[in-house]
Design brief:
Length: 213
């Protein structure tokens, strides 16, 4: 089962990357729209204004999906990064599509009082060529986070991520499932390398943010 390729669209004069699936994929995601575990028919990664403060991002993402003509259940991610700066990396059939906005990095375990809340987003949309068990999907999300943090640290970014990072990992809904998604498993190791490569490349973009229109 081959992962779909993203197509660039525009919603309210802002770029949106859309993946349309010929048939549903099993997914896990932390996105504001379509988060959790379940079958998903599409994914989008949409650029919003830098000072985005919509009171209901889930509803807003739903409005975007309707405007794009996306039916059924899907995953909607939001970012202030211009998604035309998306970087895709592949490894052993695993594909990672990442938009990297690390202008406000944070340390995950820093005391809350040590850092003011500010948005900055690294969105990762990842595709496995084979089915993963639900446990392996959960493990894969952790693998994405570990690979992202490694790329940030190796690139000299003082933090493990940002407070609004979101991840989606999708796999075929059929077939014998891989039981593990950690960084030394067959799929997890490829996923780690692909995410690491995509984030590292994304950090080289001079100014990935989208100018307000």
């Amino acid at each position: 089962m081959t992962a779909p390729r993203p197509v660039l669209h525009s919603v309210q004069d802002r770029p949106v990357l859309v993946w349309r699936c010929e048939r549903p994929w099993l997914a896990i995601s932390s996105a504001p729209r379509g988060g959790g575990i379940g079958l998903r028919n599409w994914v989008f990664n949409a650029t919003v204004v830098t000072d985005y403060d919509h009171p209901d991002p889930t509803a807003h993402a739903g409005e975007m999906a309707a405007g794009l003509g996306l039916p059924g259940d899907g995953i909607g991610l939001l970012t202030a990064v211009d998604v035309r700066h998306e970087v895709t990396a592949t490894d052993s059939g695993v594909r990672a599509s990442v938009t990297t906005g690390a202008n406000v990095p944070v340390w995950a375990a820093a005391p809350e009082r040590a850092q003011a809340w500010a948005a900055g987003t690294i969105n990762a949309v990842c595709w496995s060529p084979v089915r993963l068990s639900e446990a392996a999907l959960v493990n894969a999300v952790a693998t994405v986070a570990e690979a992202k943090a490694q790329a940030l640290l190796e690139s000299g970014v003082a933090g493990t991520g940002t407070v609004t990072d979101a991840t989606a990992v999708l796999c075929p809904a059929d077939g014998d499932p891989e039981l593990y998604g950690g960084p030394r498993s067959r799929i997890g190791s490829a996923l780690a390398r692909a995410v690491h490569a995509a984030v590292t490349a994304g950090l080289r973009v001079d100014d990935p943010r989208h100018d307000p229109v």
